[in-house]
Please model this.
Amino acid sequence: MENKYNLKSPAVKRLMKEAAELRDPTEHYHAQPLEDNLFEWHFSVRGPPDSDFDGGVYHGRIVLPPEYPMKPPSIILLTPNGRFEVGKKICLSISGHHPETWQPSWSIRTALIAIIGFMPTKGEGAIGSLDYTPEERRALAKKSQDFCCESCGCSMRTALLALTPNSDPSPEDHQAKELAQQISFKAESSLSRQPSESGGAESEPSTLTEGDSSTSAGQEADVEPQAELAEESPAPSEEEPRPPAAPSVGRPLSPRQRRAQQHNQQGQRDGREAASRLPFIAPPHQPQDDSHAGSAVLIVVLTLALAALIFRRIYLANEYKFDYEL
Amino acid sequence: MRSCRRRKQIWTAKMAEEQQESSQPEVEGVNCLAYDEAIIAQQDRIQQEIANSNPLVSDRQDLAVLQREYAEEDTVYQLKIKDLHKKYSYIRKTRPDGNCFYRAFGFAHLESLLDDSKELQKFKAVAAKSKLDLVNEGFTEFTIEDFHNTFMDLIELCEKQPSLQELLSSFNDQNVSDYVVVYLRLLTSGYLQREYGFFQHFIEGGRSVKEFCQQEVEPMSKESDHIHIIALAQALNVSILVEYMDRGEGGTVNHHVFPEGGDPRIFLLYRPGHYDILYK
Model:
């Protein structure tokens, strides 16, 4: 690969360094460039242990712009996970409501840890986000281990180092996690939120019981990027047990119904979470919904105006012709 | 296009136009991806326009160019420019891209060190050590070292006593220039965080120093204020004088030295939202 790229290019220099830095899988993440393209990487991340993604290992692509690290990478998940749409760009970049927050001193590792940190946060209907039920997410987490990436030949069972009971995050990890909290994720994709992979999830009989969701937040708590928050806020387990309002496994719900239910549950937790989160990573989703409504109205008005103009035009043209013939 | 703020106004106006235009095709189906991408593309185009008409750092020009930037009947500015003329003869402009303070500072300081090798060596030692300070503060070494290396390369270039043109062309090479800006931003952020006990009192909006740095200092294109200037001046132990020229009455420009009581080597002209370099 060394010969193929201009080593003087700042992006190439930096990516080579990052590739070396991330060469060996850790317990929680791994990423490497594709063999034939330094600007496309594949990554695997472990679902946060004290969440519905526990036991899941998720795979995805990272696309680096030529201006990297001055411009942020784009991230695309390939494993169905119930939190991010598959095959859609999640970019750490701008949105109409959030200023550009990418910092050139961040790295691919920062982005990976940010993804892990964002998995347990709510999608709340943001574009590219999914709000599957805990059951579905747990089923997908289980299934995710079977995923094998065709293009990089990576199997999720072996992609990461096995978790050890006393895994101790290094100080670097700690710092990166702190950074990850600052990123405001902005998912970038089409509006269609109809989850294409939900069919599989629904038909999958959920073998997990309600009790499983409140598994220990104990020793593994550190690996979750919000661990710092957890220390300040009341016990993290408080947020963990899903209210029994979750849909019963036997009755399949439409994605809309499920979302509505999810929102209800989340509403109750909102206050607490918002308080414990830094102000600028407060979920960016509400304003987006507003703007959708706003632009929809604008479009309707403009369409009507256009129709009126065209109609008038035609009318005038006809009238003119009529006059002329007389 | 005199200032960053003005750039923002143009920006907003153009985006409003663009949004109106682009909303027509959306009738087919509200497509937010297209919407966002249109905004991004539009921002890029505006950046490109600014870039085409303003070099990152311009040649040195006679201060008289300022007079022509304002209408003759604009007495507030014309009087102030006259006042400026008493002290300064030349101006060097920087591109209004939100990074102008750092670029102006970086260039002006290195330029002033071209014929002062004693000061240059002192500055080199401070700059060389600065990376370690950042790493000790928790910045990731391998992500900041490229920026540091580029900065040190430029200082080493100055040691060879290059022509002014050579330094100028380095500062107009976007890759080099932006990396220097990133490093100066990191130094500013590092200093603010090291002295957070002091700077905490000057930060608005209930943010911590760290949050402020991550929102207002480290990302590119974020404009600089007093607090940034004080931090960078102290981090590098360089004294900066800023002449403030705005719509305020009085007919004279006010200046401020950072840090107070210093003996400034660098003179910057501030007009709302933008910094240029001044020469006596």
Observations:
- The CA atoms of residues 91 and 186 of chain A lie 5 Å apart.
- The first helix of chain A runs from residue 10 to 21.
- Confidence is low (pLDDT under 50) at residues 92-99, 186-254, 267-287 of chain A.
